[in-house]
Specification:
Number of helices: 3
Order of helices and strands: HHEEEEEEH
Number of strands: 6
Number of domains: 1
Distance between the termini: 67 Å
Radius of gyration: 18 Å
């Protein structure tokens, strides 16, 4: 009984950071809309891949995360177990139309336990320094000239 309570407590503590990362990744999907390609590359870095089709550009980024601290716990549940591992893999795709971000999508092993897309937070974390408090993207002033 004590072991079960200890395991559940460990999962709750590890999940606290994952919840914040999940919220950040989801916020990025709306907050980065409107960024120019230059602004996006400034905060995300150089993409792993870039494809262009007319006025549409797709930038792809790959990242790994160990945001839960590298602990691996397997909790027994009916029908199997739940593994709380030390990290995952996130593939981020940014779609730009006419040099402005129109969507951010995530794929890969991107979900921490009870925290969807949490492993994508390290990819977008640097972009939040460029956001004003109201959450919309700063405009690229050189693009307006």
């Amino acid at each position: 009984m004590h072991l079960r309570v200890l395991c559940i407590g460990a999962v709750v503590l590890m999940s606290a950071c994952s919840f914040n990362d999940s919220r950040m990744a989801h916020q990025a999907q709306s907050s980065l809309l409107g960024f120019s390609e230059r602004d996006l590359e400034t905060c995300l870095g150089v993409p792993n891949r870039k494809d262009s089709f007319g006025q549409t550009t797709i930038l792809s980024y790959d990242g790994t995360s160990t945001s839960t601290g590298g602990i691996n716990v397997i909790l027994p549940v009916v029908g199997g177990g739940v593994s709380v591992s030390g990290g995952g893999y996130c593939h981020l795709e940014a779609r730009l139309d006419n040099d402005r971000v129109t969507s951010i999508r995530y794929a890969g092993e991107k979900d921490a336990t009870l925290a969807p897309d949490a492993y994508c937070a390290p990819l977008v974390r640097g972009c939040f320094a460029r956001l004003p408090k109201h959450g919309r993207a700063k405009s690229d002033t050189s693009a307006a000239r």
